[in-house]
Specification:
572 residues; FAD/NAD(P)-binding domain; Cholesterol Oxidase, domain 2; 7-stranded mixed β-sheet; alpha+beta
Amino acid sequence: MDTDAYDYIVVGGGSAGCIAAARLAQASSHRVLLLEVGDPANINPETLAADGFKDAFANDRVMWDRMSTRQPECGKRSLYVGTGTGMGGSGAVNGMVYTRGDRQDFEQWPPGWQWADVAPAFAEVEALLKPRPRPASAFTDLFIRAAGKLGFKRKDGLNDGDLNGTIGYNDMNYEGAFRRHSYAAFLRNRELPNLTVLTQARCHKILFEDKRAVGVQYERHGRVGIVRAQQEIILCAGALETPKLLMLSGIGPHWQLQQHNIPVVHRLDGIGQNLQDHPNVCLFYRARNTIDFGYPQLYGFHHVSPASHLPDTQPDTCFVLFSAPSALKHSMKRMLPLMLLPGVLYRQRWLRRSIRTLIEWAFLLPPLQHYVERIYGIVVILGKPLSRGSVTLASRNPEDQAQIDPAYYRHPADLQTLVAGVELAKAIAQQSEMVQWGNQGLVRAVNRQHPQQVADWIKGATMTTFHFCGTCAMGEDPDSPVDTQLRVKGVAGLRVADASVMPVIPVSALNAPSMMIGWRVVDFILKPKTSQQQPEQEGAAKKRTARTGPKNKGATNKATTKKGSTPISAEG
């Protein structure tokens, strides 16, 4: 068993982890190690291409397949809850949407994390990331005009924190033909001689001496190794993997640890609880004309629930225009094998490949191509769910998927809000601008008038938006397992810096807030006096109303070579 030592260890090379590792290496002479379970980026070049998002979604090497527990309010179905893996994480496979969120989202976060506190970090991220909108098309502009008749106002730039009642072209992480995720912007092709990146390294657990995190046990290429951290370990493995790793390490609900015979390092019952996501449904329509856009570039936000727990000025629902010609085939290649093959058969790679080959052949048929090129969708996303799910251990084996219960519509108000959102989307599709382009409904909900009929359709059509968060929520209250400096409570030398610390989900996509968190954790580590005093001063000066909802009880750049650690090329 190999043992190496670094000053800082970052676990997870995703949206937050790449930024945290890069900043730690740039801002100090400390030796930094970044461990990523997935591949180097150059093995899967579609993760570096702006147009590669659809191919990445169908690639088993860059999507971490998982299924949820059966969802009672979704027809007792198990839903796909996969996430991206490899350098860049989910930011390497997503639709490249970059939206900060609504300023009222951050009023639901603890002191020190309000809009004024996080806006400077967003700006720092954006200075390197350089997000920008996609050019408008004739169809997207028509859609904006149709939405305008129902209370939406066109807005150029959706990152000023005021989203309610707006629609416009959101910023996206791209530059020319290339994707600009956190790996591309912060790590790739950068000279950081004090940073070592190990890909294809699965972390088994965090190691403790007394109650101080001192190292990580991991497996790489069949060999188990240990790396020690002289200063701190920062977990950036994501909202589904970070709580799992903590529980495997002896930090979590005592009943979970006892059930799996894991020695308790510190009891934190909030670990793995408070799971949130954005469930969505898509209303499909067929036009008379070819769809002329290819990215999720048009977003709208609105407050639609008549009985919302939020103020009328805070958006609770998100609307996205979907291009079937650009992504339907690849979505089917990902989802159809999951739908057709039981768990045991799905693990047979040749069966998955066979189904995907059939899909490829089907989409070569001219009649199907002609049909699909005229299909578009209005995706309706529940932006501020009240339901709270959980991530719990299935076993003490690090290779076993955790039990993931997103608890979709467990709170009845969530379904009511989404029904209202679907009705608004249907109304947009009936406007003269949409009639002009073509608006033949392809799903049952389009012709269903009774709210219960729409609700029943939603239960059968729901899927994830891949926006998991909240499972290691930060806060000042005793139930929050992470403090506002992102330190795991009750132990030393361990922080969490990914979407799992978000106590309440923002209404928008989580990629931008995750990168902001990855940026801020380095300030907390390297500037402890300033960062620890500021939240107290600002918190005392502000009156805050918390509306949290119910909770359930490759790329090293000339890195130093060490025994057991292989530097990654600039492409890795």
